[in-house]
């Protein structure tokens, strides 16, 4: 789909000018599926907000801290997350969607290879993540099935630019847990695209989870965890709200 992104943008612009056909069905939010069905690669960026690094008692990174978020973890806006974890945590994140295959892209040219942005949760099983003690398993702790919900749609980069001033909020069961703005990213979106693309080839539809601000459950006293029945509302201004529900297994 994202290989044909320019054609899709042109079609969307035409619909905006002319309006939808008279027989077009109404938008059914409950029928929305994954905006990126199966990315070939999904990357997580750790400790990319200073306040989250602080609450995690970790030093600020001097370069992007990258880990794999395996594609089998990706879910859509209407998929429940089934888990047996007793330490499942939330992490609200802006997610970048790459629009074209690319390699060695300078930050100044990053917008040319970005299809757009969506809302994501980097759900984390803290037991699995930290069972290695001083050697945490970021990728494994964040890649169980359903641990990468994204949606509800992709907003194109021509609408949001570098996405550098977007409010981001996470509500759990109606209570706000995280509230920040993407201007607080340590490494902004163009920097992340440059850093990654100079090390690996990026493909159309790849995802970059850009990091989460302070307010996660494991840093609270006492720690707070998601439970079967929990509802997570993740909202980013200019994009929308991703609703994620947790069920037991």
UniProtKB/TrEMBL annotation:
Pfam name, any one: FAA_hydrolase
Keywords recorded for this protein, A-Z: Hydrolase, Metal-binding
Taxonomic superkingdom: Bacteria
Biological processes per GO annotation: carboxylic acid metabolic process
InterPro entries: FAH (IPR051121), Fumarylacetoacetase-like_C (IPR011234), Fumarylacetoacetase_C_sf (IPR036663)
Domain Fumarylacetoacetase-like C-terminal residues, every copy: 42-246
Annotated SUPFAM superfamilies: FAH
A GO molecular-function annotation: hydrolase activity
Similarity-based family: Belongs to the FAH family.
Name assigned to this protein: Fumarylacetoacetate hydrolase family protein
């Amino acid at each position: 789909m994202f290989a044909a992104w320019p054609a899709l943008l042109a079609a969307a612009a035409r619909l905006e000018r002319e309006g939808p056909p008279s027989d077009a069905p109404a938008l059914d939010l409950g029928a929305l599926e994954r905006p990126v069905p199966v990315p070939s690669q999904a990357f997580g960026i750790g400790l990319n907000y200073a306040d989250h690094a602080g609450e995690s008692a970790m030093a600020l990174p001097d370069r992007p801290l990258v880990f794999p978020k395996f594609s089998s973890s990706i879910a859509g806006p209407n998929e429940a997350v089934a888990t047996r974890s007793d330490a499942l945590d939330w992490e609200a994140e802006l997610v970048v969607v790459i629009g074209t295959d690319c390699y060695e892209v300078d930050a100044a040219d990053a917008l040319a290879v970005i299809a757009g942005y969506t809302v994501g949760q980097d759900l984390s099983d803290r037991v699995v993540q930290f069972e290695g003690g001083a050697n945490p398993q970021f990728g494994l702790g964040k890649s169980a099935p359903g641990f990468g919900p994204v949606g509800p749609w992709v907003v194109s980069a021509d609408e949001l630019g570098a996405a550098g001033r977007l409010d981001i909020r996470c509500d759990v069961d109606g209570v706000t847990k995280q509230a920040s703005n993407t201007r607080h990213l340590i490494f902004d979106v163009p920097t992340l695209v440059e850093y990654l693309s100079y090390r690996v080839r990026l493909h159309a539809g790849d995802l970059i989870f850009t990091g989460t601000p302070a307010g996660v459950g494991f840093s609270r006293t006492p720690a707070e965890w998601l439970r079967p029945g929990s509802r997570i509302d993740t909202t980013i201004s200019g994009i929308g709200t991703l609703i994620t529900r947790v069920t037991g297994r």
